[in-house]
Design goal:
Elements: E1 2-4, E2 7-10, E3 13-15, E4 21-23, E5 28-33, E6 38-41, H1 43-49, H2 53-56, H3 71-83, E7 86-94, E8 100-111, E9 117-124, H4 128-138
Antiparallel strand pairs: 1-2, 2-3, 3-4, 5-6, 5-9, 7-8, 8-9
Bound molecules: flavin mononucleotide.
Flavin mononucleotide is lined by residues 30, 32, 36, 61-62, 64-65, 69, 74, 77, 91, 93, 107, 119-121.
Length: 142
């Protein structure tokens, strides 16, 4: 653990004063069924969410939703994955116990041979400039 001005870093996470959590992991992965119920979350996702796997798997993915996120973003996510099979966008997620983190998510639809559909989200960390643009855009949306 190291401290530097208003930051505390531990286990690859950096906690900023305003609640934002920065991370070093390359990607955060989760999968849902076709209704958006979480079926799998990677260790990196669980670490950011600050939740054990049994508190996420089986729950709707909005369990990590941050109230600052506009409904329009998730409407476009669901419209796009259902019509085109993919969506990309910026998401601010809530961390259990307080705090939040930003991701750049790519959500994909995958249908297996028996016709069962699932959705996969792979998230990487956005740049500060991308986060700033997302904050400004989302402030204009419902
Ligand atoms: C594969 C997949 C991953 C998702 N990941 C997130 C996520 O990390 N954070 C989030 O708030 N919503 C995520 N969603 C969207 C949620 O299902 C949900 O639509 C959103 O949280 C808004 O909640 P609501 O639909 O109840 O309004 C994801 C959906 C899918 C299909």
């Amino acid at each position: 653990m190291s401290t530097n001005n208003n930051e505390i870093s531990t286990d690859g996470l950096t906690f900023l004063d305003d609640g934002e959590v920065l991370y070093n992991d390359l990607y955060l992965l989760s999968e849902t069924d076709e209704k958006g119920i979480v079926q799998y979350a990677s260790d990196s996702f669980l670490k950011l969410a600050n939740m054990p796997t049994e508190e996420i798997v089986g729950e709707p993915h909005n369990i990590v939703r941050h109230p600052d996120m506009p409904r329009a973003a998730f409407k476009s996510l669901w419209d796009d994955v259902q019509s085109k099979g993919f969506w990309t966008g910026y998401v601010k997620n809530q961390r259990k116990g307080g705090g939040y983190y930003w991701v750049y998510a790519t959500v994909l639809r995958s249908t297996d041979k028996s016709g069962i559909t699932k959705y996969i989200s792979i998230r990487v960390k956005p740049s500060r400039e991308d986060i700033q643009r997302a904050i400004e855009l989302y402030a204009t949306l419902d």
